[in-house]
Amino acid sequence: MSVAKKEYKRVTVKSLIEMKKNGEKISMLTSYDYTMAKIVDGAGTDVILVGDSASNVMAGHETTLPITLDQMIYHASSVVRAVKRALVVVDLPFGSYQSDPKEALRSSIKIMKESGGHAVKLEGGKEVKESVKRILNAGIPVMAHLGLTPQSIYKFGTYTVRAKEEEEASKLKKDALMLEKIGCFALVLEKVPAKLAQEVADSLTIPVIGIGAGSGVDGQVLVTHDMIGMTHEFNPRFLRRYMNLYEDMTNAIGQYCKDVKAVDFPNKDEQY
């Protein structure tokens, strides 16, 4: 069922909670640089995530673990300069918040001051409760992340669906309620059963944004490079490709190379 869409000149934390209350779904995509962020924002995306997935997409690492706080700030500041409407959320990278709530606060303050981002996101439930509370007490909005948490990949050993068993599902539900209670403004659920995700979304007043979590949540997030088909080897069930830029770009670049070799580019109209 379609819902009348309110126009937001600037999306804020308050806007997202209002969207959930009004039954309007939330769109969220990643960006890591100025040019992409300008396009993603201009197309009407509600939330732009400067994800630690930059470690994979931009730097070619196998996991999200290697990216540093300073690298995240570089990507985030590039995105912020392009954005006029979307809420910009910045991932706290691995090692910047897990061990010490004071370190979590220092990392969050550094991101907010140096990048100009609007909020931070971090993975985990009960185990990061004190870090979340410390960040929130400083007035920094926090988006939580449960389910498959890629920074814990070596603990899980796989990127498979999480919380299929009752024990893990029960913990996820308790963590979600706890994260809302202490003040998180939104929650990402990654790769969990659709029924469980909807149950969590229905139990919370804050929006739940899913990736591989079905349609019963309050919004969806994808990695932009996957969604527009710049990547082509990653094919999870939850991914819908809206373009095939890998093929289009390969063909265009191949044609450019041929034209240069054949002295067809530049032609007379393309020189001074």
Please describe the topology of this protein.
Elements: H1 13-21, E1 26-30, H2 34-42, E2 47-50, H3 54-57, H4 69-80, E3 87-91, H5 101-115, E4 119-123, H6 129-137, E5 142-147, H7 153-156, H8 166-182, E6 186-190, H9 194-203, E7 208-211, E8 219-222, H10 224-227, H11 245-261
Parallel strand pairs: 1-2, 1-8, 2-3, 3-4, 4-5, 5-6, 6-7, 7-8
Helix pairs in contact: 2-4, 4-5, 5-6
Strand tally = 8
User: For the record, what is the CATH homologous superfamily label of the largest domain?
Assistant: Phosphoenolpyruvate-binding domains
Largest sheet: 8 strands, parallel, barrel
Q: What is the CATH class designation of the largest domain?
A: Alpha Beta
Query: Residue ranges: pLDDT <50 for 5 or more in a row?
Result: none
Helix content: 40-55%
What report would you give on this structure?
The protein has 272 residues and is of the alpha/beta class. The protein has 2 domains: 229 residues, Phosphoenolpyruvate-binding domains (TIM Barrel); 29 residues, no CATH class. Strands 1-2-3-4-5-6-7-8 form an 8-stranded parallel barrel, surrounded by 7 helices. Helix 6 links the parallel strand 4 and strand 5. Helix 2 crosses helix 4, helix 4 packs parallel to helix 5 and helix 5 crosses helix 6. The longest helix has 17 residues.
Question: Can you give me a brief rundown of this structure?
Answer:
Helices cover 40% and strands 14% of the residues. By secondary structure, it is an alpha/beta fold.
